[in-house]
């Protein structure tokens, strides 16, 4: 949620130009209001000056306060001199006001570490404390100076109870004038009122005040002064926050003081002296309006806290909903109060039950009746305050049953009481499968390195055997019967050399010559050679998609892949069948490439055999019929080309090997 703020609400304070303009207005107020709003006879500075001066200084930026304090002193002196003509007393009055405001501002900043006076109830309470305490030093100082210098130089209100007027003026006016700079923009739960509501409230409130304090329409409305004030101030605070409340406070103060000075309204019994009536009316206004400002401040503080809490909750909810872990929570009655989408989807997959908030956990577990008692017992342990981790298999066997790592824990409120329980679930079946695959890959790699080293040495030995066999054969006559024996030795050594090539291919140590290849053309050319090897009872069909991506590989090596897969398919169909080779463009994740599928209709393989098909020296063929290196070699060649190979097989339904080769980066 975005909160719009005006440029006066920045934490740096109002611009210097705005503060100086307010200071000029202060001089005008001092001059105009002086004759009627002074505290008592002989006083020089009228009551609004204290509150306006402090508001200007508190609203200003910290670096501007020294300059503004001096400007406030000058403004008060000019205004005071304008309506009295007493130069020295006017300067002394300005110095008093400046010193008073700067002491209060510094004291408040020390108490609140620079927070705005209306930013929270504590900051506002400290503002009141700073006003009360900050007036005392100037009171004592000026009183002492008056004794030494004389009353002709120091204003008369510096003695006696003059500080009461200063405190009440600051308590009533400063918060109202500071409201436009208050950082609070949110209001109470009712939301921000509309302009029409504000206009209606101002109208009705003005009528009520005029009726009560200026006796306008007294025959129609007879309202006590409190009734005419408090309900409307509460309405303003609830619907329009600190700024709305400040507007109505100023309206209230203006009408009350004006009516009292004019000797109209409920305060006329305070005597014929307008100055006395005005002073007492002002104390009444300050005692009501000043402390009551804490009401909208508290509402704004609570609304801001609620906004922060909603924002934090929304962020937490987004994190939980986007988490890959499965997260759920229940209350003390074991009713589901939260579950992220991953938890809901996984629970529906293994149980068939679609969970929603408000559903009892016992009802949700009805989809897995065999696991329900254990699950409920573990939830109860968490509700008792225990935090633990359990590893269990959960799920309906007819749907899915996986192994999970479940961490349970209690949910505590602010007082530390258990109000619910939560669980974080991870499907470790997938993790363990991946761990097993990684272990197989490491084992294959180890075997490959061993096979490569053996094959290399063995190939050197076979090369020597073939070479010496040829030398011996050349030394024998053409009709020597031992030449046939040497030929058998040479054929066996040659076959052994071919076996070493398979081992080297499996170990990825064979020298390859990759180039850009159209896999469709390569397969079509190869099938013409392999078709006679399949026999008359195996039907071969090839399906090729046009415009195949070109791939980079060694054609001779890949023909060996096709040969091994085709021969294995033939052996899996002793009674005949169909061998299908399909080639098409495809994707593996986000990688473009070509997908080749070799599918037969043979006897198939059980899962335990499928899991070991690429394991070297593993074979299901009879002794002497297979070496167990055919499919491992295929696996090595495909991975050497940067591809992937997978197998799917169903007993008595056939087998399909899928080879994916990535498209060459420089292919069209």
Describe what this molecule looks like in 3D.
The protein is α+β, with helices and mostly antiparallel strands. It has helices at residues 16-37, 48-59, 65-84, 87-112, 121-149, 162-178, 195-213, 230-261, 274-292, 294-322, 341-351, 361-364, 372-383, 428-475, 482-506, 519-534, 555-571, 607-610, 630-640; strands spanning 326-331, 336-339, 388-394, 402-412, 418-427, 515-517, 538-544, 551-553, 577-588, 591-600, 644-650, 654-662. Strands 2-1-5-4-3 form a 5-stranded antiparallel beta sheet. A hairpin with a 7-residue loop joins strand 3 and strand 4.
Structural class: alpha+beta
Task: Report the end-to-end length measured between terminal Cα atoms.
Answer: 50 Å
- For the report, how would you describe the main beta sheet? 5 strands, antiparallel
- The radius of gyration over CA amounts to 47 Å
Number of helices: 19
In the sheet with the most strands, the strands line up as 2-1-5-4-3
The amount of beta strand, in percent, is 5-15%
Uncertain runs: 1-11, 186-191
The 3D shape can be described as: elongated
How do the strands and helices of this protein lay out in sequence?
Layout: H1 16-37, H2 48-59, H3 65-84, H4 87-112, H5 121-149, H6 162-178, H7 195-213, H8 230-261, H9 274-292, H10 294-322, E1 326-331, E2 336-339, H11 341-351, H12 361-364, H13 372-383, E3 388-394, E4 402-412, E5 418-427, H14 428-475, H15 482-506, E6 515-517, H16 519-534, E7 538-544, E8 551-553, H17 555-571, E9 577-588, E10 591-600, H18 607-610, H19 630-640, E11 644-650, E12 654-662
């Amino acid at each position: 949620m975005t909160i719009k703020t005006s440029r006066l609400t920045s934490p740096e304070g109002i611009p210097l130009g705005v503060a100086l303009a307010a200071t000029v207005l202060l001089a005008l107020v001092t001059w105009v209001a002086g004759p009627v709003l002074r505290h008592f006879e002989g006083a020089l500075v009228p009551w609004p000056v204290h509150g306006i001066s402090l508001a200007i200084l508190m609203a200003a930026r910290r670096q501007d306060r020294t300059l503004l304090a001096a400007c406030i002193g000058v403004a008060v002196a000019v205004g005071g001199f304008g309506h009295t003509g007493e130069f020295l007393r006017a300067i002394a009055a300005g110095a008093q006001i400046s010193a008073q405001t700067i002491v209060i501002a510094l004291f408040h900043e020390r108490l609140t570490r620079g927070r705005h006076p209306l930013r929270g109830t504590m900051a506002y309470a400290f503002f009141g404390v700073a006003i009360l305490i900050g007036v005392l030093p100037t009171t004592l100082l000026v009183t002492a100076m008056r004794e030494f210098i004389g009353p002709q130089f120091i204003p008369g209100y510096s003695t006696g109870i003059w500080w009461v007027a200063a405190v009440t003026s600051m308590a009533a006016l400063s918060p109202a004038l500071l409201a436009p700079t208050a950082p609070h923009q949110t209001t109470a739960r009712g939301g921000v009122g509309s302009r029409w509501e504000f206009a209606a409230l101002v109208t009705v409130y003005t009528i009520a005040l005029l009726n009560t304090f200026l006796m306008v329409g007294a025959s129609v409305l007879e309202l006590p002064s409190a009734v005419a004030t408090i309900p409307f101030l509460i309405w303003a605070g609830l619907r329009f926050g600190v700024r709305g409340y400040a507007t109505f406070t100023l309206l209230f103060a203006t009408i009350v003081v004006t009516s009292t000075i004019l000797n109209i309204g409920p305060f006329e019994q305070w005597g014929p002296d307008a100055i006395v009536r005005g002073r007492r009316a002002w104390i009444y206004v300050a005692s009501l309006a000043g402390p009551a400002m804490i009401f909208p401040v508290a509402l704004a503080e609570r609304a801001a806290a609620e906004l922060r809490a909603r924002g934090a909750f929304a962020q937490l909810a987004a994190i939980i909903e986007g988490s890959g872990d499965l997260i759920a929570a229940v209350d003390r009655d074991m009713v589901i109060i939260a579950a992220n989408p991953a938890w809901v989807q996984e629970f529906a997959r293994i149980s068939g039950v679609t969970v929603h908030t408000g559903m009892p956990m016992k009802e949700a577990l009805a989809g897995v009746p065999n696991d329900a008692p254990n699950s409920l017992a573990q939830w109860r342990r968490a509700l008792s305050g225990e935090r633990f981790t359990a590893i269990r298999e959960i799920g309906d066997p007819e749907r899915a049953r996986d192994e999970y790592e479940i961490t349970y824990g209690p949910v505590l409120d602010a007082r530390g009481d258990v109000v619910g329980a939560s669980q974080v679930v991870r499907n470790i079946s997938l993790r363990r499968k991946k761990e097993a695959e990684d272990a197989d890959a490491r084992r294959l790699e180890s075997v490959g390195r061993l096979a490569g080293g053996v094959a290399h040495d063995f190939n050197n030995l076979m090369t020597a055997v073939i070479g010496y066999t040829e030398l011996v054969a050349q030394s024998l006559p053409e009709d020597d019967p031992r030449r046939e024996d040497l030929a058998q030795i040479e054929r066996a050594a040659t076959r052994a050399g071919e076996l070493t090539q398979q081992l080297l291919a499996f170990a990825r140590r064979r020298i390859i010559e990759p180039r850009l290849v159209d896999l469709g053309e390569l397969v079509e050319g190869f099938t013409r050679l392999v078709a006679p090897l399949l026999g008359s009872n195996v039907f071969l069909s090839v399906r090729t998609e046009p415009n195949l991506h070109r791939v980079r590989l060694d054609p001779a090596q890949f023909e060996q892949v096709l040969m091994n897969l085709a021969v294995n398919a033939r052996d899996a169909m002793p009674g005949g069948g169909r061998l299908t080779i399909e080639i098409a463009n495809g994707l593996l994740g986000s990688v473009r490439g070509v997908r080749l599928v070799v599918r037969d209709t043979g006897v198939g393989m059980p899962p335990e055999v499928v899991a070991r098909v690429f394991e070297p020296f593993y074979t299901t063929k009879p002794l002497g019929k297979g070496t167990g290196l055919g499919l491992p070699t295929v696996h090595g060649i495909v991975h050497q080309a940067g591809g992937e190979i997978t197998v799917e097989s169903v007993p008595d339904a056939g087998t399909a090997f899928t080879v994916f080769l990535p498209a060459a980066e420089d292919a069209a």
